[in-house]
Every structure is written in structure tokens, then in C-alpha cells.
Write a structure and sequence with these properties.
The protein has 307 residues and is of the alpha+beta class. It folds into two domains: 97 residues, Phosphorylase Kinase, domain 1 (2-Layer Sandwich), CATH 3.30.200; 191 residues, Aminoglycoside phosphotransferase (APH), C-terminal lobe (Aminoglycoside 3'-phosphotransferase, Chain: A, domain 2), CATH 3.90.1200.10. The protein is 43% helix and 15% strand. It has eleven helices and nine strands. The longest helix has 19 residues. The radius of gyration is 20 Å and the shape is globular.
Amino acid sequence: MTHRLTWTDFPDPLRARLEELLGGAVVSTQSCRGGFSSSSAEILRSQAGRRLFVKAVRERDNPGSMALNRSEAAALATIPASAPVPPLVAAFDHEDWFVLVTEVAPGVLPAEPWTATQLNRVLAALDELQAAATPCPVPGLRSVAESLGPDMLGFDRVAEDPPTDLDPWIAERLDELREAARRGIGALDGDTLCHADVRADNILLTTEGEVSLVDWAWASRGSRIADALQLLASVPDPDGTLRVNDRVDAVLDRHGLPRQVGTDVLTGILAFFVDAARWPHDPSLPLLGEHRRRFRDSLVAVVRERW
């Protein structure tokens, strides 16, 4: 498993600073599951009962994690309070640490595997977010096409250097898939606030139906369908119970878009996973390679069905 930093890894002066924010000494900690970063992801509770969520990391632990935490802090500072996002409390440098502190989002991660009820709730929440956040209220964000576009050109890199385990179905129509992925990148452009990294471990659900989106490091400006299609691309559905492709079509129908758009976007996302599945192992992110291979294998079935 990925080793996350915890409260016990923090130096005493940093602990003292966090306890000032909490208004008292820390009496309990809870590490959150999910994700691949070595950054801490802990809920701290003080003697007074206040709870805060803390991400803290040093560049030597993982430079990428620190950069993402800084990006998230910048986004959270300007995302409207009406969005389903835990509010930012503080973000600061402490010696060689960068620390991001938010309120604790209510709820728990979705069930694994997903249930239809939970998936419907999250898709509805994404529709509500996009309706409320168009035009994009956060200035200066890159477009989803800019942030995800290079990843979605994975089939170009596969064509230049095919992996030994390339799926024969992909190999037979690689040029067509490359064209579809490029169309998919174009379809992600727009002027809506997008999370741009929507998957199960970035979502919290309450029993009352409330949805919170966490980990806003990739916040972007894009199409009103971008987050919903990214979510559906991440949902394994080996027995077809969740009818992922029917849900993709329903999203497109609601926004008056051709269903081919869904095929193109999912093809681009598949391109990333096919390419990334053969990247060198990163010992600081030990779970990432298996995650990419699992999602490659799940998504190729979805794209084949649409094709």
C-alpha cells in the first residue's frame, strides 16, 4: 500500500501550529483511505471537539504530491462556497512542509463496487454543480482540454512504441482510435468549473443524500459533461449491472449532444490508461500501476461496446 505520512511524522512545531487552528490538543486522528499520494490525509480532532482535515507533505516525500497540494489550495481559495466542496481553513509553508487544511467533508466513500443508487446521486450532484458553476466562477483555470489533453493522446505514443500486451482489438483500429481521442479532447473544452479528477476516492456521500467532492488539485474550466463522463469512465461494471454506456448516453442526451461525443471522450481516457499502464514503476506511488492496468481493462470493454 501507499505509505501516507501521518500525525506522528509531523515535527513538534508543526503539530503545535495545527493545534492552534484546532483550538486545543489533538486527542485522535483518522487516516483516510484512497488515493496514491504519500501526503498525509488525516482528520484531526481536538479536545474541544473540532475536527479538521490535513494534507501535509515535503518535497522529498514526493515532489508531485506537493505541487498538487499547492494547486488544490489555490483552487479552494476561490471556489464558491455554494459548491459541494469542503471549505479551505488554511494553507501554509512550514520549514520544508506544505500544509493544506480544510473543514471535514461529511460522509463516506462510495461502496465498492458502486451501487446504482449512489451513482445516480453523484451524477445528479455533478449536473447541479455544472448548472451552478457556468460560466466558471474561478479565474485563471486551465481548460480541461489543456490539462487532460496530453494524457488523452496516449494512442499516439502507443502507435510509436506499441506495448507487447496491446489488446488486438485496439491494434486493429489504432488510427481510428487516435482520431476519436483527438475529437474527445476538443469536446472537453467549455466554460464550466470542473473537478477534472472525479473518481470514487474523491467523493464522499452521506446517508441523507449529500455529495461532497474532495481533492481539487486538477480544478479546470471545461465542458458541462466533462466530470460526468470522467466519473463513468472510472466505474467498473464487469457484469453490466450499472449499464455504464446507457448512463453515458443519458448524460449526452440531457445536454443535447451527439452520443458519438461520449465514444470519443471515453476513447481518449482509454488511451491514457493503455499508455500509462506500461510506465515504469514509481516506488513512491506503489499502487498506481495496478490501478492503471485495472482501469485499462475495464474501460476497453466499455469503449468496444460503444464502438
